[in-house]
Amino acid sequence: MSQLRAPGVYFEPSEQRVAPLELGKTGVPVFVGVARRGPLDRPVRVTSEVRFLELFGEAVSGSYLLSALRGFFDNGGDAAFVLRVARVVGEATEDIARCSSAKVFDRAGVECLEVRAQDEGAWGNHLRLSLATRAMDGRTFLTRDARVGDDALQVKSSHGISVGTTIRITDEVNEQWVVVTRVDAKVLSLDAPLLHDLRSAAPTYVTPQSLELRIRDQDRDERYDHVSLHGASPRFVERIVNEASRLIRCTVLRSSTPTALAAPMDQLDGPLVGGSDGVADLGPDDFIGHDRGPTDRRGLWGLVEHPELDLLVLPDLMSAFKSSKRFRSLRDVEVVQDAAIALCERSRHWFALLDVPPGGDFEEALRWRQQFDSAHAAFYFPWVITLEGGRPSTVPSCGHVAGVISRVDRETGIHKAPANEVLMGVVDLAVLVQDSHLAMLNAAGINCIRPFAARGIRIWGARTASSDPENRHLNVRRTIGSIGAAIERGTQWAVFEPNGPDLWKRVSRSIVGFLIRLREKGMLTGSTPEEAFYVKCDEETNAPEDVDRGMMISEIGLAITRPVEFIVFRVAQRLEDQAQQTEE
Asked: Do residues 468 and 530 share a domain?
């Protein structure tokens, strides 16, 4: 603060501070596959295999999802998302994902409550529901007489009674059931007028009633006491159960049944029925899905605008191809992989890790690769063999590769090529790649997995599926995409600012500082910052007509560190007589 000399008003201009640009977390994959339970078409974060089993249950027969996720964590991945897909549209006779459910009837035989499994799947058919209406502790009595038509009672104590509580009023002769609409100290307001005169000296007792609900399956038991079917109650069953339960959701069905008969019928271990998995007849459209707005997104399009992701893997695409009759040929697999690539290209910084179809040799892998051309995808060959329950199992490598990428991004940086890294949890390969085959596969942009006698099984390639030499390397493409995404996020403050030289300079300073920090981490090459990058945002890039359209244009050039793929040693023999001539 400048020194203030005389009394008065002083103005000290200060530059607006903006948060520095940050690269953000990378190497966060989403695994798309089938599961026994869990939310459909919505990515859910998991941080361990145990957490996956807790949310999604044991692996579906024939599914590669759990194997891929296990490979991710074995190879150093720390967090991933899982997108469960299933068939949800089809004929009534088809295997469509449905929630198991049960209807609860009141004492008049009218439906009053629907209980359904939290998620679709046959797992919900194992749920068992118990209900009982109980008199609560805290019975009280009238302290003032009440007349026919009154809609309030004065009681000794209102302990345990709240808005929405059903109470039973009884004296030596009469009984009435009403719902409390207001509690004011010891005065209870009622939802219906009294039908009889009530005397405090009778005595007249007031007993609050509550519903006890219990749900259990093979592994979990949940109990909810003192819940109510009345929406005004702080213990409203929909609110209490739906917020806390990991097994069910409740919906109260409105009816005109009198309060005395509105309580649910008691039941013990009633089954929920009708649940189905919807995985037997998966088709390409179930993986691809659709985007009909924020409230209606399915399949891959359920990932639109998800800010935390940057890797996409599809382990169960191949299991669906092998088992579902709706995958008629490899053309259907190609359609889904094309859709995955299109989604990654739309996001500009996502990347798809794709597998070649199972059972093929290197020639079939080459033919498959030739059908794609994208800088946002990479293919890995061959499939790997892991131990599942002590038995060898052949699985796609995408999950293991995603774990390596996640670990390398975290430990070194996104600029480091995720290659020459050991694949943990792999005991063998489905196909042994020879050196001559490796040369052809690498030239075609297929990343091979190779065994080395003393160094283990390693990823031996880091190329994209692009024919453009500028986009050949996976780490280069991912680095450029991540830098672009960071600049896009970090310059949102500039929107609606006055579009002029002052703003251009501030934006340039912010980007330059960001790129200097990246160069210091080794992400950019060049002996000086000028050789590593340039940022241009001035009158030349922002022509008057662009400014009139409300556009600010910056031009950024980057020299990304590229990986070493070929190391050449030139060894020359030095003859003895030549050495003697040199000494003379």
From this structure: no
Evaluate whether residue 493 is within a structural domain.
no
How deeply is 50 buried, as exposed, middle or buried, from its count of CB atoms within 10 A (0-12, 13-18, 19+)? exposed
| 230 and 300 together in one domain | no
Provide the residue type at 321 as one letter.
Answer: F
3-class DSSP state of 581: helix
pLDDT of residue 360: 80
Tokens representing residue 132 in the block: 């009982």
If asked whether residues 77 and 144 sit together in one domain, one would say no
Q: What are phi and psi of 22, to 5 degrees?
A: -130, 145
Contact of 374 with 409, CB cutoff 8 Å:
no
Q: Which domain holds residue 562?
A: 498-584
Cis amide leading into 29 (omega within 30): no
pLDDT at 1: 52
Q: Residue 168 pairs with which residues in a beta bridge?
A: 177, 207
Amino acid identity for residue 475 in this structure: N
- In a domain, residue 483? The reply is no
Q: What is the pLDDT of residue 580?
A: 54
Same domain, 263 and 307: no
CA quadruple 56, 57, 61, 67: dihedral positive or negative?
positive
Q: Is 530 helix (H, G, I), strand (E, B) or coil?
A: helix
Residue 518: in which H helix or E strand, if any?
Answer: helix 501-520
Exposed/middle/buried for residue 17 (C-beta within 10 Å: 0-12, 13-18, 19+): exposed
Over the stretch 564-576, which tens digit does the pLDDT of each residue have?
Answer: 766 677 777 766 6
- CB atoms near residue 574 (< 10 Å): 7
Task: Tell me which residues of the chain have a pLDDT lower than 50.
Answer: 582
Query: Quick one: three-class SS letters along 416-429?
Result: CCCCCCECCCCCEE
Q: Residue 463: which CATH number?
A: 3.40.50.11780
Question: Which 8-state DSSP code applies to residue 335?
Answer: H
Domain boundary residue, one of 271, 287, 314: 271
Domain count, the chain: 3
Whether residue 430 sits in one domain with residue 411: yes
User: Does the residue 10 lie in any domain?
Assistant: no
* Domain match, 469 and 321 both: yes
φ/ψ (deg, to 5) at 160: 80, 0
Which of 288, 561, 401, 342 has its CA nearest to residue 27?
401
pLDDT of res. 92: 66
- Residue-wise pLDDT for 106-126, tens only, equals 999 999 999 999 999 999 999
Helix (H) or strand (E) holding 532: helix 529-532
**Contact between residue 339 and residue 295 where contact means Cβ atoms under 8 Å apart:** no
